[in-house]
Amino acid sequence: MNLATRKSKQIYLIFLTPLLLTACGHSKKVDVSNIPLTVTIQRFDHDFDKMRTGPMAPEATYLERRYGIFYRDFIAEIVPASNIKDTTYFMPLRQVFTTTYNGRRPYFDLKHDVDSVYPGNMEKQSSEIADVFKRIKYFYPRAVLPANIYAYFSGFQAQTMIGDNYLAIGLDMFLGADSKFYPALTETLPRYITRRFTPEYIAPRVAETVIRENLFPEKDNDKSLLAKMVYNGKILYLMDQVLPDAPDSVKIGYSSKQLKWCDDFKGNVWSYFLEGNLLYETDYEKIQMYLTEAPFTPGLGENNSSAPKLGVWTGWQIVRQYMENNPKVTLQQLMADDDAQKILNGAKYRPK
Question: Which residues contact 72 (CB under 8 A, 6 or more apart)?
Answer without folding.
Answer: 6, 64, 84
